[in-house]
Hints:
This protein is mainly alpha-helical. The protein has one domain (2-205). The protein contains seven helices and two strands, in the order αββαααααα. It has a two-stranded antiparallel sheet. α3 (75-100) packs antiparallel against α4 (107-125). The longest helix is centred in the C-terminal third of the chain and has 31 residues, at 175-205. The protein is globular and about 65 Å long. The protein starts with a helix and ends with a helix. The mean pLDDT is 92.
Amino acid sequence: MIVILGLASLAYALINYGKLPQELPAQWGITGKVNRYWDKNIAIFMFGILGIVLPLIMQFTRSIDPKRENYKKFENAYAMSRLAIGVLFNLMLVLTVAYGLGKEINVGKIAIGALGVMFIALGNYMPQVKDNYLFGVRTAWTLSSPEVWRKTHRLSGRMWMIGGLLIFGGAFLSGTLSQTLIITALVLVILVPVLYSWIISRQLKS
Length: 206
């Protein structure tokens, strides 16, 4: 499915290739303003190829993980993460091409909103993730204790869902409020689970 989606997005880009300007947007701000441009060949290649290659790399890396047997315990969560990454990059390709064709769309807000939805969806699966070396909240404390891993990912699931809601809400706002919501979301998603894993580890040892 991921490959089919990627090929369809690339086909859309190539069909409209001759109509596109030489440079396409590569980065947007929350306000919708373009912050960076790439040559259209690079933009199509990067968004299109990454949308296919990254999920395939994820499928390969699980086979070399020393704890690869654990992946069988969270197949749905891992499949959803691969799909989400593929969809996000392919969505960016389609939106970038549409923008290049002159469509009146705020790619930045759509992309941020989609990112929020992705965090909400993946947050629902995070508690299912079992200990491994390549996916999830991998700290010295989670990797050294299955119990710390379990509790950290249970909390992480909640943080990802709350963070996703904040990011999604930030897509519909602007200015300082939007930036505050997104930064708060990143703290919840990244820093809180790491700190929590350390706290739980200390509690278990004491």
